[in-house]
Amino acid sequence: MALKMRTCQLNINQISKVVELHELAFKGFFLTELGTSFLNQYYKSVIQSEKALNLGVFDENSKLLGFAITAKNSKGFNKSIIKQNFLGFLGIAFKLLILKPKAIYRLFINLEKKSPDIKDDKGNYSELLSIATHPNKQGLGIGKKLLIETEKQLKSEGYDKLALTTDYHNNIDVIRFYEKSGYSIYYDFITYPTRKMYKLIKTI
Question: What percent of the chain has pLDDT over 90?
Fold first, then answer.
């Protein structure tokens, strides 16, 4: 029997589900290592923002199978949500300053995910910030479904370009997936300290 899935906008009551799925899908990633409190604050801030498009795929039992978080306009997005939720992020920053001081530096230096040597249209495009599929539901087309619906909704609101970042090394299957979906490599860059990334972009 085919899995029944529905796609809808995420809301504030679903933050715990988003964080739980993030922690399952992105084990060992930098943002995950910042802890559950940080992830709760980050996703709460993004899901409440009118500047973001936040989609989830749910099964018939309302279990979250995947999500896609997108800045409708990449330029200054991360800084704007920090400013709008300053006290919440300040509390998290104090905790990290004590427990993981190097993480604070890495977090803020990587707010702008771009190459200093490349003119990248000043961030005047939408940007997929996070897309995740439940590890037990890989291969069911959830990621593709989220990507297509994200593009469709952005286009309906008048946005015409969508960018995303992904790892440069040991990531050929993911890169091919995006290329088959119409994305082309915009440029590569290094996030602090040494992680090499691709930025890809598509006219939607």
Answer: 70
